[in-house]
Design brief:
Elements lengths: L5 H13 L2 E2 L7 E2 L15 E5 L26 E6 L4 E2 L20 E2 L8 E4 L4 E7 L38 E2 L2 E2 L25 H9 L26 E6 L14 E7 L20 E6 L10 E8 L4 E2 L5 E3 L10 H6 L3 H4 L6 E4 L8 E3 L2 H5 L22 H5 L7
Length: 408
Amino acid sequence: MAAEDIPAALVTAMNTCYALVKSAPVDGKYPVGSIGTAQRSPAQAGVLVHGWDGTDNGVAPWMPGDAQLTGLGVGARWSSSFINNYNVSYPGNDERKPPIPTPPVISKPSVSIYSVYQGGVILSISDTQINCAYSVDAGTDSRAKSAGTPALIGCGKKSTPPDINQWCGPNCQIGNSLISTACASNTLPGPKPTVMCTIKPQNIAALLVYQRSFSCVSGQGEPFPCGSNTWPVGPAYNEVVVEPDTNPDIPTKEVKNTISAYYNPTGIDYPSDPRVNECGGFGTPWRSLRTGAGEGGAKKAQDLCCQVEPNSRTLLKPLTCQPAPALSPGVTSACTEIAKWNPSITNMDWPPLLALAVQSWDTPFLVGDCKTVHGEGADCGAATVVPAVCDSAVVSKFAFDHKDYVLN
């Protein structure tokens, strides 16, 4: 396959994988009950992604990061998620929360992912191994290794709050129903179960079933009780702990091609800029943007983190921005990671950058061409770097629309 055809082929493959999970066998798709029969990598559960979270490997991006240097969660792994159209996060009210705020929540569902504002990597399921999984964010950075052999990173108990280390099995339940055979949940029994069991890869259907109870409405439009925060602030994503799969034909310190592609989220008004360091460290919804470039604009380009109104997911008006964080071991961008790729070590050319339309819940992956990544109306010029979207000469739609904006 020609290099220029690879992104389009990957988009088709990723969207097919994303749509593979169904609640019943429809058009040859897998029903949830058939998922997780493999011991190691349940490829039928959707697309496996890792979003930038401050734990990434600053030297070798094809390897998992080891930012947890102390405490129970120490160890190199990817905290990742399966995304699929069985578990999308619909807008709506949490039954425990006040009515929908103003401005109203927009009507489209969202991909259930760690961050709808920052990018990350698409992991190759066949080249990684799953240690364990949880149907919600399980705080694996504060979890010990699992008991027994092998001792798996991120799969044991937490210290705060006190936790019970238990693999999902006879004592797991969903709602008030004890499930002893299919392992259809990952909570311990009790009046108000809050302690999570750890799900084995072969029981990955448990993740999908229980996660669905946090999604408000399923991907097929069937009503379901809403059990989480409304999705504009916190999509109902799962957590899957992943390590590279070693290649038996080469030294064990080397791994297979763990990364299939990078992804960068689009936006309702402006997409995130893959050249700008991620803003997740600020703790509130911010979008990475660059302005000040291009003819007639400010004299110097500025990398910004601009605040997003969480319900509409559009930039606050007037703009509320601050400088993007400097590059550091815990802060990165898609273009920084791509630039670190070393084909001589990975035996693989640079993985392409795809666009992820987080509110196109049926076919969210798009070819990451310049105007998709930087917004319709961007000036892509004569890009000279690979990929072109990382060229500093590109003027994004945001930069054009705010060419006179200067951070005070």
